[in-house]
Design goal:
The complex is a heterodimer of chains A (262) and B (191). Chain A is mainly α. Chain A contains 8 helices and no strands. Chain A is globular, with a radius of gyration of 23 Å. By secondary structure, chain B is mainly α. Classes of the chains: A mainly alpha (262), B mainly alpha (191).
Chain lengths: 262, 191
């Protein structure tokens, strides 16, 4: 069983590398690296480090301490690159609306900080698996930030470009899966390592295929939206809120009337 | 069961649910988009307040309780409940129209104040909660019908203030509705 899994893992590793190269070629040929430089860099880094990890494991073995540390350090680098790529995609999704984006990015940073704190508190407090725990916290923060951006889009009724949405969904689903995978790894330790690695690669392959399909055509950078004069919002927003408050009062008084008479 | 396992699986489940909700098209999006005039409906139902008020008047009910049969009284009670529910729905429509207009302006503004946005979010949550509670109470008949008289009184009192606010918004609201309709035509795409 373990031998079969190891064999499947090696095949998957090769498939992942081929898929990564294909995506990279697509990014270069379609010149999509212009619209998504951080994303392109992330794919490149991931590919290079993937090949390096393969060499490290074949030299030092899968269960040695050295290969464990090296691979997790490389993983930390990849996650940081993913964080930057995610910020780029978030910017693509919202930054054409300058005012909302200025508000959104502050909330997103706050949200990421809170999630990191949550992940830190929820994890067991021992020094084992520090790197997987840090990676899990970062993955959770990435997933939360992407979900928060989608909530923003829904709240403000902004229809985003399909390509940006697909890239973000790919990142989010992969991050969610990584969190779950790392959590199970922490629980079952060594017995889960082969399966953990295999499932992680399957999830990553799924993301790569989604991104490849998304970026099969050339993408252009969006043009900034024509916005209203600055004073319009400052004048109208308080008045809208006043009217919303009046409607709320109307309901509240109805509610109070009901309550007192009951 | 490991606590970390529950906490992380739970958090991811919440994230996925939120993602599903955010990616789903709102049910009433098509209606709102196809009819930008709906944004100004706030004024319309206020126009019908005298009729609503008359329909909910206590004197009418007193008169009926003396003269009409029990069946007729029951029917009147049911009708009144229907009126109150319709009125609540109209209030909700007003609220959503205003909210949409406010969001359109926020999206198209170069500078957005967090305080106003959070205030609107708070008002939205409060409205949704109160609306559901009252609706549920009316639907299951927890509110005895004479109580509905209070509704017309408070509505007529507030309508004066609302009318004043509407007049003040006047041309600007029309401008915002125009903006909304132009955005709808363009599909509000990011590029």
């Amino acid at each position: 069983m373990l031998r079969d899994l190891a064999q499947a893992q090696q095949i998957l590793w090769a498939v992942n590398i081929v898929a990564g190269v294909l995506l990279l070629v697509l990014l270069a040929v379609r010149k999509n690296y212009r619209a998504y430089p951080a994303f392109s860099l992330y794919v490149l880094l991931n590919l290079v480090l993937g090949i390096l990890a393969f060499l490290v494991y074949s030299r030092l073995g899968f269960f040695s301490n050295a290969s464990w540390r090296i691979s997790w350090t490389m993983q930390a680098l990849v996650i940081c690159a993913r964080g930057v790529a995610v910020m780029e995609v978030c910017k693509h999704l919202l930054s054409h609306y300058r005012g909302v984006w200025a508000l959104a990015w502050r909330i997103l940073v706050g949200c990421a900080t809170l999630v990191l704190l949550y992940a830190g508190l929820a994890a067991k407090h021992d020094l084992r698996f520090v790197l997987p725990k840090a990676a899990r916290a970062l993955e959770l923060a990435i997933a939360a930030v992407i979900v928060a951006v989608f909530v923003f889009l829904r709240y403000y009724d902004v229809e985003a470009k399909r390509e940006d949405r697909s890239l973000a969904i790919g990142f989010c689903l992969y991050s969610c899966f990584s969190v779950l995978n790392n959590t199970v790894l922490e629980r079952f330790l060594d017995s889960y390592v082969p399966l953990w690695n295999f499932l992680g690669m399957v999830a990553f392959l799924a993301s790569i295929l989604l991104w490849t399909w998304t970026l099969r055509r050339p993408q252009t950078e969006g043009t900034p939206k024509t916005l209203l004069p600055a004073g319009v919002y400052q004048t109208l927003a308080p008045q809208f809120n006043l009217r919303l408050r009046l409607l709320n009062e109307q309901l509240a008084q109805f509610w109070k009337t009901e309550a007192t008479r009951n | 069961m490991n606590l970390a396992l529950i906490l992380f699986f739970g958090f991811v489940a919440i994230l996925l649910l939120a993602l599903g909700w955010a990616l789903r098209k709102p049910r009433n999006a098509r209606n709102l988009k196809s009819d930008p005039q709906a944004l100004e409906q706030g004024q319309r139902h206020v126009d019908y307040l005298p009729q609503i008020r008359q329909a909910l008047a206590k004197t009418d009910y007193d008169f009926l309780s003396k003269r009409a049969s029990r069946g007729a009284q029951r029917r009147v009670r049911r009708d009144r409940r229907g009126i109150a529910l319709n009125y609540l729905a109209a209030l909700r429509g007003d609220f959503q129209g205003l909210l949409r207009m406010a969001r359109v302006i926020a999206v198209l503004s170069p500078d957005v104040a967090a305080a106003h946005e959070f205030e609107r979010l708070r008002l939205t949550a409060k409205f949704a909660w109160q609306y559901q509670m009252i609706r549920w109470k009316l639907t299951v008949g927890f509110a005895p019908l004479p109580q509905l008289d209070g509704l017309s009184e408070l509505v007529s009192g507030l309508s004066v203030r609302m009318e004043a606010a509407l007049k003040e918004l006047g041309e600007r609201a029309a401008l915002a509705a125009e903006l909304a309709s132009s955005m709808d035509r363009r599909g509000m795409s990011a590029v």
